[in-house]
Give the backbone structure.
Amino acid sequence: MTIEDVLRKRRPVLFDGANGTEYQRRGLVAGLAPESWNLSNAQAVEEVHREYCMSGSQVIESNTFGANRKRLESSGLENKIKEINKIAVGLALSAADEKVLVAGSVGPLGALVDPYGDVRKEEAGDIFREQVELLIGAGVHLIAIETMISLEEAVIALEAAKDAGAKTVSVTMTFEPSPDGPRTPFGESPTQAVELLERYGVSIIGSNCGRGFDVMRAVAKEMKMAAKVPVLIQPNAGIPEYLQNAVTYPESPQQFGEFVKEMTSLGVELIGGCCGMTSAHIAEAHRVIQRMRKEKSAKV
């Protein structure tokens, strides 16, 4: 089974919600790399995956967002890169039980690429390629490059993934509000992202993280107008708030359900969640999608 098979059968396809904020709710200490839990708390990592599978996710993402060599250096874990990626995929595949697809999550390097930073483009490509090769070798069904704030880095990651042999690669960018509409921190628009990444052969284009539902609505509309490939939308559950020394996210599962209705009406092919999105949000999205399908069938 591939994501293309799933898309041909039924849309929208439902991804999972957040990993990092779910680990924090289970005791992950602030500042500790979530990927370290693949080694020290594998049971909790698999538990989160299983909750999403039980809630209706058709695709779950491995706990490998920051598991590239450059990013792992900050935690002193760069020498465990192979172990971290392999275990992460194994935990996701175990939870998926051959019923759900597993996407290998690939996040930014955590350092800027030349000329804005010290990482050379060739080095960046090598770093991304190394991680993608590990994820493919461990058995993921697709590669999900996500939370990209720079189109240049996104293209480097996309090319590296394809060079590593990935057949299906999604890329999701992160946008912020601006007077001219949604833009990446580097000033790039959703349309520019779609046009450039499609030129480089992206399989799925979209957006994740960001400022919650309002900005994501604008991003989704613009991307759907421009895109020839399927669109993936994964918002945060709103802008985080600090209440009683804890981080909370304001958007409820019911509000996410309404957002899913909007995205489905817009024609968005793949929907999931990012920071603050729980299994309850995904379960509500699943209920909404199932209800919409029944209503559509009843009209035929």
Observations:
- The beta strands are 13-14, 59-61, 101-106, 142-148, 169-173, 204-209, 231-235, 241-243, 246-248, 270-271.
- The chain is about 45% helix and 15% strand.
- The mean pLDDT is 96.
- The chain has one domain: 3-299.
